[in-house]
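Dear Dr. H.,

I hope your travels went smoothly. While you were away I took the liberty of generating a structure for the chain from your last submission, since the lab meeting agenda had it listed for discussion. I wanted you to have the full record in hand beforehand rather than looking at slides cold. The sequence, exactly as received, is reproduced here:
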Amino acid sequence: MLAVAAADEDNLTFPAAEGIALSEYGVRITDMTAPIPDLLIGCNSRFEAVARSVSAPVGMKRAVAHLTVTVVGLEALSCESITVSIPRMYDRIASDGTPGNSGAEFSEKAIVLARNSAGRYVGQAVVLPTDTASATLEFRFTINGKNYVSVQETRIEANRKYALSVAAKFKDDTDLKLTPVISYLPWDAPTTIPDDGLPAMDDRPANDDFTVEIFRNGCWEEIFVHNAEVSDYAANPAAGYVQHDMGFAMFTDAFAAPLKVRVTRRAGTFSKVEIRPLSYGIVPNVQTPNSVEFELDDPAQKVSVEFDDNRMENLFILPDLPDTAIPTGANVTYFGPGIHNMGRKEILYKDNQTIYLDEGALVYGCIYAKGCRNLTIRGRGILCSSKENHGDGRQPQIETFDCNGFKVEGILLRDTPNWTLKIVGSTGVHIDNIKEIGWIMNSDGMDFICCRNVLVENTFQRNYDDNVTIKAFNGKTDYVTAHTASDGSFTDASIWTVYYLAQNKFDVYDYEIRNCVFWADKAHNMLVGPEARGIAFRNIRFHDNIVLENRQNDGIYPGAMAVMIADNGTFEDIAFENIIVEDIDGGKVFCAHFTNAWAFDGLYGQWARNITLRNIAYTGTRATPSWIRGRSDAQSIDGVTIGNFTVNGAPVTDGSGPHLEINGYVRNVTFE
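The corresponding predicted structure, in token form, is as follows:
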């Protein structure tokens, strides 16, 4: 028996012949240009001639999908409608629900998008599945007689509701760039066509605190505002629980001229607004009781917009230049615009690999790599790990071992379960222009373990824990043995780090961290140590960085900038230069001291020498005095240079004043 349930029969064709095999029965769409009805189909091969029942229930399958299309960015265009066509679509459904073709060729379905009251183009249609042999789907847009094609890494499957959101942007007076983002939900999920506001570009709800617009091509263009979770250290000093949603808006522009940005606070009016970093000198121009405008001169000006001193529910504006060098080839894993569920991706002993997240891509998962040379992760998209385990055994968002020539560039990393970047035993590492937002305890931005020749630049980070930490492990063989199961597997999730470094001892040297903006809701912004394992640290330079927030102010872990001399390590030639520290909520500006925190054997560090603080400017009232402390005559700090360290513009000229304490186990101190 074949059973068909349809909204109507006007556009359906059924087999006319009797006596054919049940497997050959099905239903065909008569006219693909006409509306397709909602359609369910099912069959049962056994039917009793008794009127009361079927010998087994008939399982019904929905054979169609629903597609909603929204195009934004063409509000100023004179165009009554837009047509989007989808080729390689099936037109027939077999009795078992399998899609197919009634003829030799695939069909094509066109959807007409009408202009709504907000100036956006919207439309919806019931559609059939597309070619199951293809991993991509082509959309053809016709706008004012001109055709545009966009290829997405997806296909249409039955029993789903798809939302295609397209951001249109003029490249010049005649050419358009279309950036589609496609997502889907189960059929029973609610679907609405937006009349006002932007279509979803995230499977989380859009941030409802702010509206963001940029002015280009003669009109205001709305930018999608994502949500990201952050934690309040004052409310959760020990754990980093989720307390707040902040917003962030990402976009690209060539910045041929300064770009005007408008932010509207949807919750209501405000009495104060700041655009930070304050050193950028961006002055907000209040337009209405709940909106401000300001200009960004270049894409390096990534900023935090804060109303009424609210740093928990703030807004990041994150511009970038367009990426014109999108990689191709067999060694490239490409994620186009849209939502992707990658899961845990492992790359083992493969060289010259690239993972590319294009603008508009939201990729869920994490990455693990070992023994790879010249591995690159880059793009203008988002890597989000909110679907990964955040409980016991949680893993880093990106974790690499012995990956020389490793590079991460351009992407935003959201909701790491643990350390955001864990990079172990590598040389020639380059981190450039990444953005990070993390809420959980141990959500360090970058942890470098026994690495050499490292360059970090142009980052914009908000981490609950440390922003950048330089460490060294040299794991002990007996620890490895104690945590190895009978089958040879490791019983400690982090044991590979210990095992690997038990076999390979690497000194830590040649680091440059520059032109970064750091926000730590709890811990350090720039940290050397404390994990050292008897290894030598040398030639480490932090310069031209800005600190927006730092809070921790206990006796062990204080310091926006810190050197924790611990774990039998030695520390020399460490410099902090041209650092701006804004009015942090309660930490210290700088600390260098001996400790046995996180020491494998409970040992303090051996010694430290040649520490430089130059052109350090703190402005504010809430930071407590910095300190530089040796432990004994043997465990001392030898050679400290302090030049132009200022607090609210006043120079710090000695180690016994209200802003800096230097104890008697620190020798050869020079104030320039």
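Two observations you may find useful: The two ends are 93 Å apart (CA to CA). The longest strand covers residues 536-549.

With kind regards,
E. W.
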